[in-house]
Write a structure and sequence with these properties.
single chain, about 400 residues, mainly alpha, 14 helices, about 0% strand
Length: about 400
């Protein structure tokens, strides 16, 4: 073929293969619909990344908060206990103000009354406990007779366990090491407890005398548009804690009077002290009924019979059931507005985190959290979950 014809043929074929006239290796422009789809995909990926980052930050913040609450457990327990006691003593300060006394003087009087009451309670308790310890040897035979069935049963279980799972014999030449008690660690823990407890009266005094200042200063920590919500929230929390404390005091007095009268009729030794203590510990959720049965049973070991034991258990159980199902919902339940599942989970969580004091502080802390959740837009769903 002529070279000119071959050149014309090659140009014609290139035009047929690329009719749009777009140079080889270049990218054709996207249509508007494809461009919108690509932008939508990029926006979805960005939102997914933001959600993932927010979830990761939430997990890290929660872990950091839990770590701080566990490490600072003694300090936080002292602070929250002081807050509860301050609310308990607030009526004394208000009464002193009605008598035209300065608020600081009323706070001092309230703290002194609290310290005097605690000293009297511990003094009487120690005297009665010492007297009880002196009287226990007289009932040693009856105590051994009462504990014999338990001892025999434990011995039978031990022998059965040894038969089923024989103990491994120690190899020759082995040395058994027993760890001695770390008295230095126990002493330091006790000293730390005493030092932290010594702060409680001072914290209560300043909380009572500077109550209005603390509340207004706390509100000022928020932005201008959130200050009214913060003020209302703090007021509702204060009202809830005050109602919780007053309700528990009323129920505790009722249970203490019922238990004291019942133990007096049953002839329980030291019924006037054991009845009050049994009524107070009955307020502890779940564990209260067990702790309320132990004191009258222990002091009655010397003269305890099956009938008296059954009567003590019946008195404690009936009074506890009445308080839990009749008095508690009417006096305290309507102020807290927490569902039973939330209360149970709160007791489990705070008890795991702070031990026995966590069980005492669990309900007011959870009630305060619910009030805060109810007034924060992003957390209202959690407040509804905690509510009734």
């Amino acid at each position: 073929m002529d070279p000119l014809m071959r050149s014309i043929s090659s140009e014609t074929g290139a035009g047929e293969e690329n009719p749009g006239g777009v140079a080889s290796g270049s990218t054709a422009p996207l249509s508007p619909s494809r461009r919108e789809s690509a932008e939508a995909m990029r926006e979805a990926e960005r939102r997914a990344h933001v959600r993932l980052q927010s979830a990761a930050l939430t997990v890290l913040a929660t872990g950091g908060l839990l770590t701080l609450m566990y490490v600072a457990k003694p300090v936080l327990i002292v602070i929250f206990t002081s807050i509860l006691l301050a609310f308990l003593l607030a009526p004394v300060v208000e009464l002193c103000q009605r008598l035209r006394m300065p608020r600081s003087v009323g706070a001092m009087i309230a703290v002194l009354l609290m310290c005097g009451a605690l000293y009297g309670f511990f003094y009487v308790s120690y005297s009665q406990a010492k007297h009880l310890a002196d009287q226990l040897p007289k009932y040693s035979a009856n105590i051994r007779r009462a504990l014999d069935p338990v001892r025999v049963g434990a011995e039978r279980v031990r022998k059965t366990t040894e038969t089923v799972l024989p103990q491994a014999k120690p190899e020759k030449g082995t040395v058994t090491v027993r760890q001695s008690s770390d008295w230095l660690s126990n002493f330091s823990s006790g000293a730390e407890f005493l030092v932290l407890t010594a702060f409680v009266p001072f914290l209560i005094f300043f909380m009572l005398s500077w109550q209005e200042h603390v509340r207004s200063a706390t509100v000022m920590l928020f932005t201008q548009e959130s200050r009214r919500t913060a003020y209302v929230t703090l007021g509702l929390i204060a009202q809830m804690i005050r109602g919780f404390i007053v309700g528990n005091v009323i129920i505790g007095i009722f249970l203490g009077i019922i238990s004291t009268v019942a133990f007096w009729i049953l002839g329980v030794p030291y019924f006037y002290l054991i009845g009050i203590f049994s009524g107070i510990v009955s307020l502890l959720p779940y564990l209260g009924i067990v702790l309320a049965i132990l004191p009258p049973v222990v002091v009655s070991l010397g003269t305890l019979t099956n009938e008296r034991f059954a009567a003590i258990v019946a008195v404690v159980v009936v009074s506890h059931v009445i308080a839990l199902n009749v008095l508690y919902p009417k006096i305290i339940g309507r102020r807290l507005q927490l569902n039973p599942l939330a209360v149970t989970l709160a007791l489990l969580f705070w008890g795991w985190l702070w031990g026995a004091m966590g069980l005492i502080l669990a309900v007011p802390l959870t009630g305060a959290m619910k009030i805060i959740f109810d007034h924060v837009g992003n957390l209202k769903a959690w407040g509804a979950w905690l509510g009734e």
